[in-house]
Amino acid sequence: MSAFGTSLFINGEFVAGEGRVETVYEPALRKPMAEVASASKGQIDQAVKAASGACRDWSQRTPRERSAALLAIAAAVEARAVTLAEVESRNAGKPLRFVKAGELANVADVFRYFGTAVRNMPAPAAGNYRSSVLTSLVRRDPIGVIAQIAPWNYPLLMAAWKIAPAIAAGNAVVIKPSELTPLSLLALSEVFAEILPAGVVNVVCGSGPDVGQALISHDLVRMISLTGDVRTGRAVLQAAAGPMIKRTHLELGGKAPVIVCEDADLDKLVETLREASFYNAGQDCTAACRIFAHRNVVQALTDKLKAMIGSLVYGRPERDDVEFGPVISARQLERVDGFVSRARAGGCDVMQGAPAESDGYFFSPTLVAAPIEAEIVQKEVFGPVLSITPFADVRTALDWANASEYGLGSSVWSRQTEQAMAIANALEYGVTWINTHGVMATEMPHGGMKNSGYGSDLSMQSLIDYTQIRHIMLG
Ligand code: NAD
What we know:
Bound molecules: nicotinamide-adenine-dinucleotide
Mean pLDDT: 96
Protein name: Gamma-aminobutyraldehyde dehydrogenase
Number of helices: 15
Helix content: 25-40%
Strand content: 15-25%
Number of domains: 2
Family: Belongs to the aldehyde dehydrogenase family.
Structural class: alpha/beta
CATH class of the largest domain: Alpha Beta
CATH superfamily of the largest domain: Aldehyde Dehydrogenase, Chain A, domain 1
Radius of gyration: 23 Å
Low-confidence stretches: none
Keywords: Oxidoreductase
Number of strands: 22
Active site: 251
Domain Aldehyde dehydrogenase: 15-472
């Protein structure tokens, strides 16, 4: 049975959901794209038990064997990139050309990287620390069943960030995609069905409070990994403190500050923000969404940003000239519009690009000149909206940035390396870019501080996060 749009993937089989039916929309058209039946409580239990059973064998496979499976998945993703990209583009409203060339290539790269990294994990040390015993060994073992909860903004890429390190390390997973965007992961499950032993990856669809909550609360789950909202992060922490204590790995929201010093290269900055602020319609947890600019350059920068925003092309994702598409849903459109309307009503200067088409959930790219205390500077908007606030001295900008509840992405712009490094060192953010923004490397860790969560995605660090350190002493 084909998975596409209608099924769950449990123990290597595509099965029809027995729970509530969720309508999945195509945001560029405001039209239904598929009906996906959610997992029932019994099916969630089956998926977790299938993962638990599969783990016994999978955890004992050598890194070489697990690596071979991940490399095969990477090759299969590349072979099906066009189909997967079309599904992702329609369901998430992303420009097709970017999904094909960028996101799908990154999905394959993530599986390939973790397939390679697991063979390069150094063997932990052995030594003798007591005269009464022969030796002590340290092992890095899989944790067991990992419940993974993915968001809608990069449905397949975030799923890859979660699944690849977890299974490379020898765990088995039950992953729940967002109820808004389950289709690409269901399509990718056909690859899992061909390559992985049954039960190593299971996919259950449905809403957060219903299917997600039941999954993260299951007693056989040993670790919960979430990419989502801060509120959902709190629900995960509560579930982790249930009868069976669970590990957690949280990638939550962000509100990335862009600190622009007096000597910054403004043209390079504006060129970078064209993508760093507006890619994916700004629905990115590291989107460059609030600029703190030195007062001596704020006017020149505002003029350049207005010109850039006026030239941004957005619209239907299948067009090959668009830089971004719609936001994900009617609710998100209303939310973004609410932030901008309140900023305008509060006296902020609002500048917008070309008016939005009305057939999809489109929002015009927007620049808001706002004081530091404005809601639009403090809260995560998650849309194509950028704010600009002047500062008089760098210390003030640093204090503003660090006062945020969030601590994920940030950037500093200055031609003086020492000044830029000093600011970067003092920022309480998991990722800081200097004279660039939003550039990722699979080999480098990605994670936050404070309400942005903890735990690393990508890099060897993520592989380590999905393992358990153990001590064995030989008497
Ligand atoms: P969300 O938290 O509403 O949903 C994320 C996932 O959590 C969905 O699959 C949802 O169904 C599930 N969920 C919701 N309530 C749940 C519950 N009680 N139990 C279990 N699962 C539950 O967030 P979203 O709207 O899908 O995603 C946007 C948010 O994610 C933004 O805040 C964004 O910043 C954040 N995000 C963070 C990163 C990162 O790397 N830090 C990456 C992408 C998105």
